[in-house]
Specification:
- The protein is α+β, with helices and mostly antiparallel strands and 309 residues long.
- Helix content is 22%, strand content 33%.
- It is flat.
């Protein structure tokens, strides 16, 4: 098996996530603004904590997702490369008389990740902070270490000045982490059923369709798009759900490949890869809610597909 893929599954690998967007929000009204613009409870965050959240439009569709860190004097918004400019413009549009300033720090601030079952041991070996809960973060040696994963494996994200990136890579490798490529990380992410905005979550997607309920605080009060989210919650269901599939055969399926149940169309694939560990293709797909239970047998482009846990 490829070294990086194997390390992500069984040991520890490092990833370069510097292509992602990083935006600072400062000012006395920054917590209030972010609380009113995202699906999670930002105002209750204390320095050293964070959350995962969605930005929605008025129709309740997801414009972007964000990994949000509450620092001592500001917020750090960590988002996908595709939504970096969108998030900045979206927030800037709603700053009217607010004491909020935005700074795109994507070029000045690098981001590395250590992921895999032994990722915590790698950080401990170099003396770095090892946060013990999701989205908790701590400063260490000029950077910030956060517990967060891009693959669904145990993981940590490290935010550092760009000039310190090479030094940090050397540290991680000295403690046993090996480099993993984006394709290796993507395969593990799909094996774990973890969606990514731009591949599996789109601006036509509703929050409850993704299954990422940790991104939504259902008792926080008003925010942009909240009326639709609450309407779906009170109704009790959505028509389709994002599921993980294991598919017979080694070749991945293209995005848009049709899913059928009992001869009728049920949904379509969003992303797929070959899993060396499973010896078959894995995928994420939206299917009708009645076909989303683990163990359900479906047909994906004419091949047998089983809904995973």
């Amino acid at each position: 098996m490829p070294a990086g893929y194997d390390a992500l599954r069984a040991a520890a690998a490092w990833l370069d996530l510097s292509a992602r967007g990083r935006i600072y929000a400062t000012g006395a009204d920054s917590a209030r603004l972010l609380h009113a613009m995202t699906t999670n409870h930002v105002q209750q965050l204390r320095p050293g904590t964070g959350c995962y959240a969605f930005f929605l439009n008025a129709q309740g569709h997801i414009l972007a997702d964000v990994n949000l860190l509450r620092l001592e004097d500001r917020f750090l918004l960590d988002t996908e490369p595709e939504t970096r400019e969108l998030v900045y413009r979206h927030l800037d549009k709603y700053i009217i008389a607010d004491d909020v300033a935005l700074e795109d720090a994507s070029e000045a601030l690098a981001c590395l990740a250590a992921e895999g079952p032994h990722a915590a041991a790698v950080l401990a070996a170099i003396g770095a902070a090892v946060p013990d809960a999701d989205y908790v973060h701590a400063p260490w040696n000029g950077g910030t270490v956060e517990r967060a994963s891009s693959t669904g494996q145990p993981g940590f994200r490290i935010f550092i000045p760009v000039q310190a990136k090479a030094e940090w890579i050397e540290r991680l490798e000295s403690a046993g982490a090996v480099p993993a490529t984006p394709d290796e990380a993507r395969t593990v992410r799909l094996e774990r059923g973890k969606p990514r905005y731009g591949e599996d979550i789109f601006d036509t997607t509703l929050p409850q369709e993704t299954g990422q309920t940790d991104a939504v605080h259902f008792a926080k009060g008003c925010y942009l798009g909240q009326e639709i989210v609450e309407r779906i919650r009170s109704r009790g269901h959505v028509n389709r759900l994002l599921v993980k599939l294991e598919i017979e055969g080694a070749s991945p399926l293209p995005a848009g490949a049709k899913i059928e149940a009992e001869g009728k169309e049920s949904g379509e694939v969003t992303s797929s890869a070959f899993s060396p560990a499973l010896g078959r293709a894995v995928a994420l797909a939206y299917v009708r809610a009645q076909h989303a239970a683990a163990g359900t047998v479906l047909s994906a482009a004419g091949r047998t597909a089983i809904v995973g846990k």
